[in-house]
Each structure stands twice: as C-alpha cells, then as structure tokens.
Design brief:
Layout: E1 8-9, E2 14-20, H1 25-39, H2 46-63, E3 68-77, E4 80-87, H3 108-115, E5 118-124, E6 127-135
Antiparallel strand pairs: 1-2, 2-3, 3-4, 4-6, 5-6
Length: 140
C-alpha cells in the first residue's frame, strides 16, 4: 500500500498529488481523478479519466527513472478536464508506429489518443508533463 497524504485542492480549480514512481501509484492516481471529478459533478468522465491516468502513470513509471511523479487534475476551462503526470525525464513520449507489435506493449499512447479530446507534452527545464484532456458539457 502506498502512503500518501489526502488529495488536496490546488490552483483554480485543481487537484494534485506527488506519488512514488511505482506501478502501484496508479491506484492513488485513479482515486485522485475520481475525487476531482466527483467534486466537479463530472462522474460521467470517471471511466475515461481513470483509464487515462492509469496509462499516463504507467508510461511515466516504465519510460523514466523518476523516483517520484506528480499527478495533476485540473479544469483549464469549463469545457475540459486535464489529467497530467509530471516526471523528471525530458524525453518526449513516442506514439507506436502502425504495424508494430502491440500485443505486449506500446498501446498506452494509442489509448490516450483515442480516449482524449487532445493530449500533449509540456517540457520543463527539469522534466516534463504529459497530459490529456477530456471534453465535458458545461453546466447549463
């Protein structure tokens, strides 16, 4: 079991949590996504959001040597929820090429691309954030 503090609101509005760079951190990341979506009354995005964060965490853990990752769930606008994972590596994620052997690995970014409205990478001096956005209907 991963010991971590309770998710806390950050920014306007957003949730974030620093987690160990381990596969087991995906469960805490899913919990953070569920908490944020419930707070924003966007439970209909839970399945897609938890799957996205699982893949983002898996990519960060598998392809970087980061001892810690940071999961960020935010609302950049009324129409989008952004789910991101920050790590210490500056290497950009690469989409698997068509025809590659997808039976054992390499499906993560393809899944992220299919589930999200858009996704991308923000490069920082000390690392990067890979993020994906889900579209949500604004409240009427």
């Amino acid at each position: 079991m991963i010991a971590s503090a309770e998710p806390r609101p950050t920014g306007h509005p957003g949730y974030s949590e620093t987690l160990p760079g381990l596969e087991e951190s995906a469960e805490a990341a899913r919990r953070l996504v569920r908490t944020a979506l419930a707070a924003w009354h966007l439970e209909e995005l839970t399945d897609s959001g938890t799957l996205l964060v699982t893949e983002l965490v898996a990519n960060a853990v598998t392809h970087t040597n980061s001892r810690q990752i940071r999961v960020i769930v935010s609302r950049p606008s009324a129409r989008f929820v952004r789910i991101g994972v920050v790590d210490k590596a500056r290497v950009l994620p690469e989409m698997t090429k068509p025809g590659a052997d997808l039976l054992t690995s390499g499906r993560g970014l393809l899944l992220i691309d299919a589930l999200s409205e858009r996704w991308g990478t923000d490069i920082y001096r000390w690392g990067k954030q890979v993020w994906a956005e889900l579209f949500c209907e604004p409240a009427v």
